[in-house]
Write a structure and sequence with these properties.
Elements: E1 3-4, E2 17-29, E3 33-39, E4 44-50, H1 56-64, E5 70-79, E6 85-86, E7 90-101, H2 115-120, H3 122-125, H4 129-151, E8 155-156, E9 162-163, E10 175-178, E11 181-185, H5 190-200, E12 202-210, E13 223-232, H6 236-257, H7 259-264, H8 270-273, E14 281-283, H9 284-296, H10 301-306, H11 317-324, E15 331-334, E16 347-348, E17 351-355, E18 357-362, E19 367-374, H12 379-388, H13 397-401, E20 410-416, H14 417-425
Parallel strand pairs: 1-2, 4-7, 8-12, 14-15
Antiparallel strand pairs: 2-3, 2-5, 3-4, 4-6, 5-7, 9-11, 10-11, 12-13, 13-20, 15-18, 16-17, 18-19, 19-20
Helix pairs in contact: 4-6, 4-14
The structure holds 4-amino-1,4-dioxobutan-2-aminium adenosine-5'-monophosphate and magnesium ion (MG).
4-amino-1,4-dioxobutan-2-aminium adenosine-5'-monophosphate (4AD) binds near residues 167 and 413.
Length: about 450
Amino acid sequence: MPQTIRIEDISHHDGQRVTLQGWVYNRTDTGKLVFLWIRDGTGFAQCVFFRGNVAPELFEAAQSLAQESSVVITGTVRQDDRAPGIPGGFELGAEEMEILQRAEEFPIQPKEHGVEFLMENRHLWIRSQRQWAVLRVRATVIRAIRDWLEANGFVNMDTPIITPAACEGTTTLFETDYFGELAYLAQSGQLYNEANIYALGRVYCFGPTFRAEKSKTRRHLTEFWMVEPEAAFCDMDQLMEIEEEFVSHIVRTCLDERAEELKVLGRDTSRLENVTPPFPRISYDESLKIVAEIREATADPERRELLELEWGSDFGSPHETELTERFAKPVFVYGYPTRAKAFYMEPWPGRPEVSKSVDLLAPEGYGEITGGSERISDLNLLLQRLDEWGLPRDAFEWYVDLRRYGSVPHSGFGLGVERTVTWICGIDHLRETIAFPRTLTRVYP
Ligand code: 4AD
Ligand code: MG
């Protein structure tokens, strides 16, 4: 019995008789030869049927197979530098084939389709080579996240998804009826992690988060995955050191392990090679000046209007895009206006209108991939902030408690998986970075 192998391992089987199981991705036919391009989830390989070598019925079957038909093919692996594939350089000289199912005409053809059509057929679209590549990068990003955090003393804690209170503002809450009481889907696990650090020191949660984002942009999903590290005895500067090591590790892992996929995506990886610590750090005040300069130099009046920004507002996508096009590496912007960010942020010493907050913006126009801050550790200040932000005391009583029993300086951040994958893949829109994206206008399939 020939061994059944995965396409990604094909180079280890040169000269051997093996079996591949997969789906027909493409077919070309020269009359004497049929080339079936097979994908099996781990890669893509060319299987060559030679009329003189295989039974006539088999050759005819190969000639007539539709895209996405499922097959089991046995043959001999041979090295051929010209053989296309992922990994390339090897092909299968086919000898036998079992057809598990002859597919109907596949709706997604190797031509341009509109995005709405592709999204409607997302369950089929994920089979295409480009989507395959993006989703493989995503899986590697997720593993690199966990590897780095575990290696650096962060303990995984699972925070609740059904919650009684808002973390990131009350405008993007998804409400749910919890046996007659109002509850919300988690926007962030941060507040619970602030409790968890008092038990475990350094923690992270990693899961889906939900925001009823009314914005239809390339950067917003309503359900997205976020990893949130939180550390006791950590200030904003130490937080930036953690973040730059962490993000550099994620990028390095993708460069090392997903080179083929990044090639499929046409990613200019030289831009990613730059991603090493330290990352530049600029204050919000400085970045405002840079944006103003860019605006001055912009001729287009519409663009000028978009780039308008007064002290006190958070950045929008246009500002982040312009700003980060100026940097070769991710850049930290720190010290945002207190009112532009969340209620829990530690104020800047001597400048209460500024917070010890820091966002990490990815270069090449990608913008914010992490948001974080030092947290308020003083009991009275936190109580004052809850009032100022109009948040209900009772829902936050447990959170306030954390400032009563051994409060320490602490900091944390959240990194959005989809935004990070979008940047690493060098693609335009984050909807392709998760198998089944949820957006303002889509919950199907
Ligand atoms: O900046 P955000 O809102 O920060 C927090 O939620 C903090 N509680 C995190 C923390 O300190 N523990 O969100 C963090 C990151 C953003 O930088 C972005 O990458 C991603 O989450 N993100 C989104 N990604 C996709 N779609 C959305 N609607 C997103 N909103 C935030
Ligand atoms: Mg943010």
